[in-house]
């Protein structure tokens, strides 16, 4: 450190027994800062090692407590690009001090998906934003965690993650890995069913499939499928997903491990019936409210107004009554009975009563040839010789029916096939009454 030359005032201070003030240059300040940072980093490292040693259990003692990440690591993750975060996950396959711990991976998982997607639905629809190679790498990270580390990373996501984090597990993971790892006797897949966002739950049901839903049990011997049925917010899309996985006969064979109690078919029937009754009640309340509003305004008979369409804000309009012919014949085609009922209820709410239905593409071709509907709402993915696209093509050969496709799949291959039919439109599931109303007003 360079000391400045003493001035006369400094000599006077020394004579009086007072030390002269020390003046630091910019170089001195920088050197002191570096020394301080080095000592502080060393001290921080020693403290973290001591805490980690204290909270990490010995082998066989269970899952360790999740440590708070060092501020420096958290700051890096917050600033990292998606590519850097993917590379961090790639480093988890290495051994030694450079391998990130479960807490670091958890923070990186949340940062990666929140930087690319706004919601669980957004993630499901635009997952190709992440390349197939990178998705496979992330899936291997989960597999490695479940097979070699007891699922510490996975359970941290399930217990502490956001909805988007758990939705990413549904999309990325091989669910067999989550079925194979447990905490306190509870398989990870059951915890995922209980905590995942309901918008992505139909995909979870379809991905889990028959073997996991019926073959994996909780600590009490109850299959995963009963956990699904026990959720309090099931909707028609969940029931449709179950129908895509199981036949009714297969549902009858799914029972608790003890063999006692009701079958999955009993639970399914009860829930489907309750949903149907709820839809009917909603329609009745809706129609009564509209009839009452029409009577109060004196703009027409209640029965006539009940069949009027609405504008984008849900209000009736004279224009919509003039332009929409509610007497047209509409064919609804979907292999899900519950989903057909939902769509038919929406159509009836909008005043369309002349409705017929079909369960498969093959049946739709026969019905359309006989009845000649004006409009066909056609589900794309259906069992049988013909899917919805093939059935629509056949119907177009024998009738002038207009076609609107219903689909939960929006990949390029499917859209390209559907485009060849020249349909009047597409409606993505899950759909609302407003989606149906807008499609009809643009068409009729």
Blueprint (SSEs and pairs):
Blueprint: H1 8-15, H2 26-55, H3 71-79, H4 82-90, H5 102-116, H6 120-125, H7 132-148, H8 152-160, H9 163-172, H10 175-180, E1 182-183, E2 186-187, H11 188-195, H12 201-215, H13 224-229, H14 236-245, H15 248-253, H16 264-297, H17 302-305, H18 318-323, E3 330-333, H19 337-349, E4 355-358, H20 361-371, E5 375-379, H21 388-398, E6 402-407, H22 412-419, E7 425-428, H23 433-443
Parallel strand pairs: 3-4, 3-5, 5-6, 6-7
Antiparallel strand pairs: 1-2
Helix pairs in contact: 3-5, 4-5, 5-8, 12-14, 14-19, 16-19, 20-21
Summarize, please:
The chain has helices at residues 8-15, 26-55, 71-79, 82-90, 102-116, 120-125, 132-148, 152-160, 163-172, 175-180, 188-195, 201-215, 224-229, 236-245, 248-253, 264-297, 302-305, 318-323, 337-349, 361-371, 388-398, 412-419, 433-443, and strands at 182-183, 186-187, 330-333, 355-358, 375-379, 402-407, 425-428.
Distance between the termini: 87 Å
Strand tally is 7
Structural class, by secondary structure, is alpha/beta
**Low-confidence stretches at least 5 residues in length (pLDDT < 50)?**
6-10, 59-72, 300-323
Task: Kindly report the spatial arrangement of strands forming the biggest sheet.
Answer: 4-3-5-6-7
SSE sequence, one letter per element = HHHHHHHHHHEEHHHHHHHHEHEHEHEHEH
- Can you count the helices? 23
Structural domains: how many: 2
Largest sheet: 5 strands, parallel
Radius of gyration: 32 Å
Give the integer mean of the pLDDT values.
78
Helix content range of the residues, please? 55-70%
